[in-house]
Amino acid sequence: MFEDLRGFIEKSRELGECRIIDGAHWDVEIGRIAELSLSVPDSPLLVFDNIEGYPRGYRIATNPFTSSRRVALGMGLPLELKGIDLIRAWKEKLAAVKPLPPVYVQSGPVKENVLVGNDVDVLKFPTPKWHEHDGGRYIGTGCMVIAKDPDTGWVNLGSYRSQVVDRNTVTMHMVPGHHGAIIARKYWDRGQSCPIAMVCGQELQLWIASVSPVSIGVSEYDWGGGLRGKAVEVVKGETVDLPIPATAEIVLEGEMPSPEIETAGEGPFGEWEGYYAGGRTPHPVVKIKAILHRNDPIQLGVPMLVGTHDDNMIMATDFSAQLWAELDQQIAGVRGVAFIYEARRRPMIVVSLKQMYPGHVKQAALIVAGAYRGATFVGRFIVIVDDDIDPTNMTEVLWAMGTRCDPKTQIDFLTNRLSMASDPRLEPEKRKAGDLTCSTAIIDACRPWAWRDQFPKTTKTSPEVMQQVRQKWGQALFG
Predict the structure, then answer these.
(1) What does the alpha-carbon distance between residue 138 and residue 129 come to, in Å, rounded to a whole number?
(2) Does residue 476 sit within a domain?
(3) What is the DSSP letter of 52?
(4) In 159-314, which ranges are E strands?
(5) pLDDT band for position 306 (50/70/90)?
(6) Which structural domain, as residue segments, surrounds residue 448?
C-alpha cells in the first residue's frame, strides 16, 4: 500500500523499474519517448523532470503499469505473478474487499499550495501535447474526476480526459452512460453547474478504483479504501463541497456548466483504440475556481499509446478479474477470463471454459455479452476456448481458433451493441446521426460438444508435467 504517487515511484526505483528523463519538451517529445519505451517488454515507469520551459521539480510521471511487476505492486500482490495467475490473484483479492469509507483530516500535502481567483493558472504545469495531431495539451489522462450525486450524496471517482483551453478553463470528455456523465446531467437538468474536482496525480490504488467498473452507487473512495486495507484520508475542497485526497499532487476545483450554456472545442486526441477518430467537437467545460498542489508536483499521465507492448496492462488485469468474478456468479466451468491487450483490451474478450453440457459455450458467450463488465464499449469479439487454453496466451488462443473453430457453424453475430464516438470503425453516416453502435462476433473456438471425445488429442504437454520439466531443467535452459 502506498500513501501517494511518490511512494509508488520510489518503490519502482528500488526495483530498478523507473527511469528519470531530463530535459524533454512538453510538445509531443514526451509522448514519443513514452511510446518508444513500449518497444521492449516490461518497460519502466518514466519520470520527466526539468521539462523545457518549466522549473525543475515540476514533473510528469507516465507508463506506470507497463510491467507485470508494477501491476502486481500497484495491486498489492506478489511481484512474481503474471498472466492468468495475476488475474486469478486479483480476482481473489477483489472478492475479499470490504469497503472502507474515507476519513476527513484537517489538512494534507495537497494544500501546500492553494491558488484561487486571479492566481489560478493551469498553464503553470508542464502539460504535454501527447500525440502529434492532438488538438491541444491534455492535463487529464491519468486523472481522477470527483463528483457528488445531488440526490443521494454518492461520491463518484472516474477517469475522464481533459484538454487545456486557457489558464482557468479545461474541457471534460465524459462518454454518455459513464457515472460522471449521469451525475452531471442531474445538475444540468436542475439548471445548475456540476461541482467538479479533478485530481491530476494520486495514490495509484485509488486511481485503479477510478478506472475500474465499480457498480453504480458505490463510491470508489470506499472501494479503494477496502483495496488498501486502510481508509483514504481526504480534506475538504476550498471552493467545492467535495472530498479531496489529502496526498494528491495536483487538484483542479471548479464547476461544469451545462453544454447548453458553454462549450469549447475538444480534440482530436490519440484515442485508446490507437486512432484520431473522435475529431474536434464541442465539449462541456470546467471553469477552474481553485488549484491545490504539492511542492514540486508530479502530474500523472496515461496517454493511451500504441506500442509493441502494452501501455497499461493493469486495465486488462482488472477488467478480466472483475468479469471472471461476475461470470462465476452465473455459470459453472469458467477457468479464466482475459481482455486482450494486443487488441486494445475492450474489443476482445477470451473466456476459458470447461464444457459441461450441450449449449454451454453459447450460454457463456451470451452471459459475457450481457454482463455489466462484459458489455464494454466497442466490444467486437467474444471468444470461448476450452479449459486447456490459457486465455492470456494469444499463441494458444489463436491455435484454438485456427484448429477448433468452423467459421460457418461456430461464429454468431450480435448487432446494435454499445460503441462510442472514438470507435474508428464507426461509419461516417452513423457517427453524424449519433448512432454509436457496433456489432459483436461470438466465436466458439472449443471442441464441438457432440463429438468432443473423438476430437484428435493434442500434443501439448500438460501444465503439471511441464512444471516438473521446468523444475528439473529450467536452470540449464534459462540460467
Answers:
(1) 6
(2) no
(3) T
(4) 162-166, 169-171, 194-199, 233-236, 243-245, 250-256, 263-266, 281-293, 298-301
(5) confident
(6) 330-453
